[in-house]
Amino acid sequence: MSAPQAVLLEAGLVVDGSGGPSWPGDVLLHGDRILALGECLRARLPEGLELADVEVVDCRARVIAPGFIDAHTHDDAIVLRDPLCLPKVSQGITTVVTGNCGISLAPYRTPQSKPPLTLLGADSFRHASMAEYRAAVDATQPALNVAALVGHTTLRFAAMEALDRPASADELARMAALLEACMEEGAHGMSSGLFYEEAFAAPAEEVTALARVVARHGGVYATHLRSEMQQIVEALHEAGDSAFAAGVPLVISHHKCAGPANWGRTRETLPLIESLAQRQKIAMDVYPYVAGSTVLREDLVDGVIDVLLTWSDPHPEMTGRLVSDIAREWGVSEQAACLRLKPGGACYFQMQEEDVERVIAHPLTMIGSDGLPHDRHPHPRLWGAFPRVFARYWRQRRLFTLEQAVHKMTGMSARNLRIAERGLLRAGHMADVVVFDPETIADTATYDRPKGLSLGIERVFVNGVLAYRGGATVDEARVLARAGRMLTRGT
Description:
The strands form four sheets. Strands 1, 2, 3, 4, 5, 19, 20, 21 and 22 form a nine-stranded mixed sheet that branches. An eight-stranded parallel sheet has the order 6-7-10-11-12-13-14-18. Helix content is about 30%, strand content about 20%. It has helices at about 80, 85-90, 130-140, 150-160, 170-185, 195-200, 205-215, 230-245, 265-275, 325-330, 335-340, 355-360, 380-395, 400-410, 410-415; strands at about 5-15, 25-30, 35-40, 55-60, 65, 70, 95-100, 110, 125, 145-150, 190-195, 220-225, 250, 280-285, 290-295, 305-310, 345-350, 365, 435, 455-460, 465-470, 480. By secondary structure, the chain is an alpha/beta fold. The mean pLDDT is about 95. The chain is globular. The longest helix is centred in the middle third of the chain and has 16 residues, at about 170-185. It contains 15 helices and 22 strands.
């Protein structure tokens, strides 16, 4: 017997990703597309499709939604190294947006031992163009789709000998040419990470000039602000002005007010962002936790907040411990311990829960995990960010409706990041679909045990193929197929 030609998701609660009302009904998938939506589709299949050719899935008491779009990831290399992408598809994620915080794999190839930062893995930078990276993704075919941004820091590495200064006119021209080629090859836009040492010396004018290239191609500009601490208001103005001058939509990455001295300042930053939104297209992404995670930096180890070590090259045995405990054991200050542990990474418990709630509930905010898949002891957001939004901020805190929660993960992200024909349940759109139990969906990953499969995710379809199926227990859950694609920019 041949395999069914279509899948009928029957009698579920259809949450279509638009933010509009949900409704009880069916969704019919055929090939890699959504063929039809409605009620009682079993009795009125499209012409040429017989019930014998359809796999019927009972979705009673389940939500049928678009596959989730992870708006902020560092999955550039892991989709090639570990194409099953279990941490993501097990959350219902069907598309990851890569190249964030100024760091993308392309366009940069180097024999050096020190590539741009270490967020993407130490030996990953082998793709001199976006076309080369796309070919690698297509050849690997990960379990989910990839939409790529071009990193400003990566462009600096490719065009400059020294990064502790602004780019010269010739270097900026070379960066612009590389970016132009990447945009022509389908990149969705550019990101910057002005917070990091490798890009901090870049003035706003350098970023604006490159953002103009992105604007000509209808892309977006996402930024890890120059400061998320005391100078956050100035950094927001800089980002807004750069994007406005370039004529490009702006995405503020993982918006937060970091450090105890800045707790509560979302009451100041969110109205400012709303004001900027009156003159330009602007959005934010956020992860649903009070701790951030990045490389080890002495300026972030202040002796006040908790800092959890996620990896350390010189002292891997300390992974998963608090830096304060390590410092006490060594009889040194926390900053001295940080220096001994470098290079490494850490979770920084920088945020206040009330600020996280204000940002995540804001109508301009979409969801991004910002997970770091190469960390030995990763932040739990890598495995649990999306189900946690439902469990904590929808079901428990009631900060928004179910429909709004789904919209923040689907239709809003597709619109803001120029991902065409995804993020909405519409006839003719690509069949990226997740079926989940709204009563049980939840994260299990914690800071102590960060690698935990989420609960309640039952089926995940990527381009019409059943990519992941949850089980009665987490041990029964598994990735079934790899049907992802490299996506090109849409409008």
